[in-house]
Amino acid sequence: MQSERDYMRRSGNVQALSAEAIQQSAIATNKVLKNTYLLLSMTLLFSAVTAGISMALALPPMTYLISVGVAMVAGIFVLPRVANSAAGIGVIFLITGALGLGLGPLLNIYLALPKGPEIVGTAMGGTGVIFLSLSAYALTSKRNFSFMGGFLFAGFMVVLIAALANIFLALPALSLAVSAGIILLMSGFILFDTSRIINGGQTNYIMATYGLYLSIFNIFINLLSLLGIMGDE
Amino acid sequence: MDWMKIGQAALLIMFIVVLIPAVRWWSKNSPKAEKGDWTAALLPLVGVILFVALLIYMVR
Question: Going along chain A, which residue ranges are E strands?
Answer without folding.
Answer: none
